[in-house]
Specification:
By secondary structure, this protein is of the alpha+beta class. It has 4 helices and 8 strands; from the N terminus they run E-H-H-E-E-E-E-H-E-H-E-E. The strands form 2 sheets. A 6-stranded antiparallel beta sheet has the order 2-3-4-5-1-6. A hairpin with a 4-residue loop joins strand 4 and strand 5. Helix 2 runs antiparallel to helix 3. The two termini are 31 Å apart.
Amino acid sequence: MDSLGRHILVEAWGCRDDALDDLPGIRQAMVEAAEAAGATVLDVSFRKFAPQGVSGVVIISESHLTIHTWPEHGYAAIDLFTCGERARPWKAFEVLSDFLGADQITTMEIRRGEIGELRRAKKSETDFVYLHEYGGSKQESGF
């Protein structure tokens, strides 16, 4: 394995109207997607918004799956993030693609924590300084 995780970003347009606002259906599809990927489901949390839209997360021992829907635009944003070698995120994608019935889907896969980069980033004797911006003012913190 050359990375610690795989993160698939999904842009789904032209989705079935009935699918995008169906909280029970989306929850079931997301859990089935996690199971199809061979992941271990730990917890789920979904919310329906007024007047429309659903957001949810399936926490898996290998990371997470998330979805946010905009029925008024026929659109869903999905993240499928898995760690380790066992989970197969593209299997999860297939389940969700079938459920949503989108006319157009674009995907991007990002390898998270590439091992070569991880080795180069090992902590040295140097202190780290991070800049954070809160409400327009910059603050510095060091380690």
